[in-house]
Design goal:
Elements: E1 8-9, E2 17-18, H1 19-24, E3 29-33, E4 39-42, H2 44-50, H3 54-57, H4 70-73, H5 76-83, E5 87-94, E6 100-111, E7 117-126, E8 142-143, E9 146-147, H6 151-164, E10 170-173, H7 180-189, E11 198-202, H8 208-216, H9 232-236, E12 240-245, H10 252-264, E13 266-267, E14 276-277, E15 280-286, H11 290-295, H12 301-307, E16 310-313, H13 323-338, E17 345-346, H14 348-355, H15 362-376, E18 381-382, H16 389-393, E19 404-405, E20 408-409, H17 425-439, H18 444-451, H19 455-464
Parallel strand pairs: 10-15, 10-16, 11-12, 12-15, 17-18
Antiparallel strand pairs: 1-2, 3-4, 3-7, 5-6, 6-7, 8-9, 13-14, 19-20
């Protein structure tokens, strides 16, 4: 356990205050290091930002927790140690969910009573709410991380700033891959809660027994293995936003507990007889038909009414008109420099094939297709041969406009990429890997089985060929 947890602050009042408790009330991420630049303590705001718990981070070098690009350019703490002066810089960090976050890092020294260096303290301020939402070129319209100028998206862009100024619950609906996560983030960053944490929980990713503890927290000894208090995601999101994705997968007993919290903003951790007041805005999202689930008895009607104060429905990609071309160019400009390629355009034939594809996976599927094409393209222009084979096999009329075939979601068919006689083994192996990853929708363990390799072998080759950064 961290020795700093026993430290107390005296002189603020007649009573003493525990240092971790004091730091947890600061809405900006704080991390404390010993002189060897190893983590001693991180506060609750930084836990929410990075996804790492303080007990996990204790004793770990800074670069493995913040994972900042400044680590490769020159450590702030090294400079502070030489000058004993605070240092401030803007940077990017990678959180536990592999998201890149723009932050402002300010590092200062901690001096003992004799003026000797006793450690470091670093503040981590989330800058995502300060990023421009409209690009200056005027060629496309951006809101947060969303791109589009179709009538449907313009309507959503106009309503987000209005919704953001209230604390009402929001329900975001739409097919898989339409961008519900991005809308939730945009609402948070346009709101007065932008300086607070944005916590995402996938209600379908954890078993019921773990989900309750993850959401509402637990007290030490509440169940076997509960060796210490856990705050839960609601408390981590205090003064910010809690985003519940796949809300349709929330078990019925937790639906009751969520409804109770939405009514009085008081949560009851497992094993505790005392409620805790938390100031959190709740945004929920689902691709399911909640009204149908209510009729089937799988979702509470009163919870639906409570979440459905403000409702946003995201249209499927096929109903967004020219946004397909805009997104295609946007993803091309994103992946080409990332993979150190010089791909600058899409041929007319390839563009025609992409524009006329129904996209059952919506924007996420288009993004994956462009990423794949940039990876296999060896020139500066994406051709038909660089597209996944199932795109070329598609025939108009096979699917309905919403991406289903006779009422059943369309599942793309795959076949192995053809290997040309003039291709080197490096090119051939790279194409084999890409095809396997595409076939398994990015699941590395399954792709490794298809290729007959161990997972570590696949990981090394992904790094070697620049397929994974």
């Amino acid at each position: 356990m961290s020795p700093i947890r026993g430290l107390q602050i005296k002189g603020l009042s007649d009573s003493t205050v525990a240092l971790p408790q004091f730091l947890n009330e600061i809405p900006v991420g704080i991390i404390v290091f010993n002189p060897d630049r190893r983590v001693v303590l991180i506060n609750r705001a930084l836990e929410a930002l990075t996804g790492f718990h303080s007990r996990e981070a204790y004793g770990i070098p800074c670069r493995y927790i913040l994972r900042s690009n400044l680590c490769m350019q020159g450590c702030q703490m090294k400079l502070v140690g030489e000058t004993s002066e605070p240092v401030c810089a803007e940077a990017n960090i990678i959180n536990r969910n592999r998201q890149k976050i723009s932050v402002r890092l300010t590092t200062g020294p901690i001096l003992d009573s004799r003026g000797h260096l006793a450690g470091f303290i670093k503040s981590v301020e989330d800058l995502r709410s300060c990023e421009d939402i409209v690009d200056e070129s005027g060629k496309s319209f951006l809101f947060g991380r969303m791109v589009g100028r179709s009538h449907e998206m313009q309507r959503i862009f106009r309503v987000i700033p209005v919704i953001a100024q209230t604390d009402s619950s929001v329900l975001i609906t739409g097919q898989t891959g339409t961008g519900k996560d991005f809308v939730a983030e945009a609402i948070h960053h346009a709101s007065n809660r932008a300086k607070g944490p944005f916590i995402k929980v996938n209600c379908g990713a954890l078993p019921e027994s773990l989900l309750e503890s993850e959401l509402f927290g637990h007290q030490k000894g509440a169940f076997t293995g509960a060796v210490e208090n856990k705050p839960g995601r609601f408390r981590l999101a205090h003064n910010g936003t809690l985003y519940l994705t796949e809300i349709g997968d929330l078990p019925l007993n937790l639906q009751v507990k969520l409804l109770s919290f939405l009514d009085d903003k008081v949560l009851h951790p497992l094993g505790s007889t005392k409620g805790v007041h938390v100031d959190v805005r709740v945004i929920a999202a689902t691709h399911r038909n909640l009204e149908q689930m209510v009729r089937e008895g799988r979702f509470r009607e009163d919870l639906l009414f409570r979440l459905n104060v403000v409702r946003l429905h995201l249209p499927p990609l096929v109903k967004r008109g020219d946004d397909i071309r805009m997104l295609m160019d946007h993803f091309l400009q994103t992946f080409s420099p990332r993979f150190k390629k010089k791909v600058t355009e899409v041929s007319d034939e390839a563009r025609h094939a992409l524009v006329n594809y129904p996209y059952p996976g919506n924007v996420r599927e288009l993004r994956n297709i462009v990423e794949y094409a940039v990876n296999v393209c060896e020139g500066n222009r994406i051709l038909l041969e660089h597209l996944p084979t199932y795109i070329l096999e598609y025939r108009p009329g096979e699917h309905e406009p919403n991406g289903v075939l006779n009422g059943v979601p369309a599942v793309p068919s795959f076949k192995l990429l053809e290997v040309g006689p003039d291709m080197s083994w490096t090119d051939t192996e790279r194409k084999m890997i890409l095809d396997a990853m595409l076939k398994t929708q990015g699941r590395r363990s399954e792709a490794a089985k298809i290729l007959g390799w161990g997972r570590s072998t696949l990981w090394r080759k992904l790094k070697r060929y620049g397929i994974m950064s």
